[in-house]
Amino acid sequence: MSHPSGEMSRMADTRYRTLAAVAERRHGILTTADLRTAGILSSAERRWIELGRLVPLSRGVYRLAGAPVTPHQRLLGSVQFNGDGAVASHRAAAWLWGLPGFGVGVIEVSKPRGRSQRRQDGWVHGSLVLPDHHTTDRLAIPVTTPARTVFDLAGIVHPARAERALDAALASGLVRRGEVQVVFAELARRGRRGTATMRELLDARGEGYAAPNSELEALGRAVFAAAGLPEPAVEVDLGDGEGWIGRVDLLFREYRLVVELDSAIHHSALVDRRADTERTHRLRAAGWRVKRVSWWDLVERPDEIVAEVLALCALAAA
Question: Is the pTM here over 0.85, yes or no?
Answer without folding.
Answer: no
